[in-house]
Write a structure and sequence with these properties.
By secondary structure, this protein is α+β, with helices and mostly antiparallel strands. It folds into two domains: 3-210, 3-Layer(aba) Sandwich (L-fuculose-1-phosphate Aldolase); 214-355, Class II aldolase/adducin N-terminal domain (L-fuculose-1-phosphate Aldolase, 3-Layer(aba) Sandwich), CATH 3.40.225.10. It is 49% helix and 15% strand. The chain has helices spanning 3-16, 59-64, 74-87, 102-107, 119-125, 130-138, 152-169, 190-210, 214-224, 236-239, 243-246, 255-261, 274-285, 306-328, 337-345, 347-355; strands spanning 28-33, 36-40, 54-58, 112-116, 142-145, 175-178, 182-187, 227-231, 266-268, 291-294, 298-303. Strands 3-2-1-4-7-6-5 form a seven-stranded mixed β-sheet, with helices on both faces. A four-stranded mixed β-sheet has the order 8-11-10-9, with helices on both faces. A hairpin with a 2-residue loop joins strand 1 and strand 2 (36-40).
């Protein structure tokens, strides 16, 4: 197997095994060399694909399809288009069926192409105003393709948009977002693919973490002097819906939760004054809480540094899972107040807190 194809397999496996990027074998990848496109076969899984899971296609034949006229009727058009796509195969094994998005892969001039459907990306592509937000978050590095029929129609729309981008920017596009679908990333090396993917995911993650929460983060920092951060934990939606829902988290389950989240998170209802609630908590407990749950808003961490925040986020997410499972096993049973006090003041745990 040539080294470039081996790189394609490695890239496919790496991203295909990451549940944050790929679920149930979805997505596809490709590599181009000497006029030949090696694209993932339909029905194969990125996480386990080998070189045999790709089929070779003639790029010139694929791109020529953009100049053909197809029937307007959906079934007739797609049947004719599929026939032409299959005839573009130049693989020894003609039993292989290429990915339905083989044409889109051929339109990118770059050597490597990755197409996946991460939930974080599709949170954007499946949102109202997603196109405008995509431009705001990702800038001019991408193009947005509005929702349309897959197959030939999608290929035609992408081809035209990529031409416009080329003419306006004087370069080839590397990121294409498909409304209600996913993302394409193209580059000359797998390392560059990874770099672009990390950049896109990082920007989206940063936006999700702070959008609508910036002022609260600033306010919490101003009131306490601590490093404040919004924690985008999926399960938090339930636990901040009401004081009753949050009740299961307001006492610790294990010593680890005390060390990393503090013994008692603070729940602040919508009609309470945040500053007053924080000061009352500090007066009673001797310090500000590490975790603040704001009703119908979300979970926030108040810590000394970013490392503490990361640990608090991990253990708060764990506490939410424990609470969920405990309810299914008969009901929540937190640590007793006596043991919580002992653990909080125990020298061994005090030392561990300093190391955390």
């Amino acid at each position: 197997m040539m080294a470039d194809l081996a790189n394609l397999v490695e890239m496919s496996n790496k991203h295909g095994r990451n549940p944050e990027l790929v679920l149930a074998g979805g997505g596809n990848t490709s590599y181009k060399k000497d006029g030949v496109l090696y694209v993932k076969c339909s029905g194969t899984s990125l996480g386990t694909i080998t070189a045999d899971g790709f089929t070779a296609m003639d790029i010139a034949k694929l791109t020529a399809l953009m100049e053909k006229d197809y029937p307007a009727e959906d079934a007739a058009r797609e049947a004719a288009f599929l026939t032409d796509v299959m005839e573009a195969r130049c693989d020894e094994d003609l039993s292989k069926r290429p990915s339905v998005e083989a044409l889109l892969h051929s339109l990118f001039p770059q050597a490597y192409v990755l197409h996946i459907h991460p939930a974080l990306v599709n949170g954007l592509t499946c949102s109202r105003g997603g196109e405008k937000l995509a431009e705001e978050i990702l800038g001019s590095q991408m193009i947005w393709i509005p929702i349309c029929r897959p197959g030939y129609t999608l290929g035609k729309l992408c081809n035209e948009a990529m031409k416009v981008y080329r003419q306006e920017k004087g370069q080839e596009v590397q990121v294409v977002l498909l409304q209600n679908h996913g993302i394409f990333i193209a580059a000359e090396t797998v390392e560059e693919i990874d770099k672009i993917l990390d950049d896109v995911m990082g920007k989206l993650e940063a936006y999700v973490r702070t959008e609508g929460k910036e002022e609260l983060v600033k306010k919490l920092h101003a009131l306490t002097g601590r490093v404040a951060e919004y924690l985008p934990i999926r399960e938090a939606v339930h636990f901040v819906s009401s004081r009753e829902s949050a009740e299961a988290l307001l006492k610790p389950f294990t010593p680890d939760h005390i060390v990393y989240c503090g013994a008692f998170p603070l729940f602040v209802s919508g009609d309470e004054d945040l500053e007053t609630a924080l000061n009352q908590f500090k007066e009673k407990q001797g310090d500000y809480p590490k975790i603040v749950l704001l009703e119908k808003v979300g979970a926030f961490a108040l810590c000394q540094n970013e490392k503490e925040i990361k640990n608090a986020e991990l253990l708060l997410a764990d506490a939410m899972k424990v609470a969920y499972y405990a309810e299914r096993f008969g009901g929540v049973l937190p640590m007793t107040d006596e043991l919580t006090y002992f653990i909080t003041h125990w020298e061994a745990e005090s030392y561990r807190k300093k190391q955390a």
